Structures are given as C-alpha cells and as structure tokens.
Amino acid sequence: MKRLAFAALALSLAFAGAALAQTSSHARKMNGNPDTSQARRITKALNLLEAKGYGDFTNFRADGSNYQANIVSGGQPLVVTIDPDSGQVTQG
Q1: CA–CA distance, 90 with 67 (Å, rounded to integer)
Q2: Which domain holds residue 76?
Q3: Beta-strand pair 76-83/88-91
Q4: Can you say how many angstroms the Cα of residue 55 is from the centroid of all Cα atoms in its chain?
Q5: Contact between residue 10 and residue 18 where contact means Cβ atoms under 8 Å apart
Q6: Cβ neighbours of residue 26 under 8 Å, at least 6 residues apart?
Q7: Mean per-residue pLDDT, 61-88
Q8: Is 35 within 8 Å of 29 (Cβ atoms)?
Q9: How far is Cα 36 from Cα 63, in angstroms, rounded to an integer?
C-alpha cells in the first residue's frame, strides 16, 4: 500500500513538485507525456527510502542523477542521497 502511495507521490513530484523543478523539463517528452523511465527512477528512489527505514522524510529532491531527502536519525537531522540505479542510500 505504501508503494502505491509513493508511486503516486513520485508522479506528482515529476509533474509539479517544486523540489524537482530542475528535472521537470527532463521528465516530459516533447509531446508532453511523462517520461516513464524518469517516473520509474523516482518511484525506485522513494521505495529505497522506505526499505532503508526512512519512511518519514522531507524535502525529496533531485541532485544530478541522484535524489536527496532530509531525515532525522537518532534525533539528528541528516541528508540522505539515493542512487536508484545502484540501489544505494547513503547518509551525509
């Protein structure tokens, strides 16, 4: 159920999310249809966050070919970087 919610969030971020403003032009083909490979990468990144235990995050955004999100771990705010291609989620 959470994956479906993350997929819906991913698609909405791909179309209108201010956090993804840098990549929004890349997320559409010339005819205005969403780039499904980009939407899949966003969905995979969001699912990786959940799988690593970071289901409660904020400020999900593009960072080059990766994505970043703000989390709180051990009471400390941290930024995690998600590489949907390698499946890596790193702190720092």
Answers
A1: 11
A2: 2-91
A3: antiparallel
A4: 12
A5: no
A6: 35, 38
A7: 95
A8: yes
A9: 19
Residue 4: pLDDT over 80: no
In the prediction, which pLDDT does 86 show? 96
Beta-carbon count within 10 A of 23 CB: 21
Q: Which region among 22-26, 42-46, 52-56, 68-72 has the lowest average model confidence (pLDDT)?
A: 22-26
* DSSP line for the chain: -HHHHHHHHHHHHHHH-GGGTTTTTTTB-TTS-B-HHHHHHHHHHHHHHHHTT--S-EEEEEETTEEEEEEEETTEEEEEEEETTTTEEEE-
In one letter, which amino acid is 31?
Answer: N
Considering its fold, how many domains does the chain have in total?
1
For the stretch 21-36, pLDDT in tens is: 444 444 444 455 557 8
Q: Is the pTM of this model over 0.70?
A: no
The tokens for 31 are 């005819």
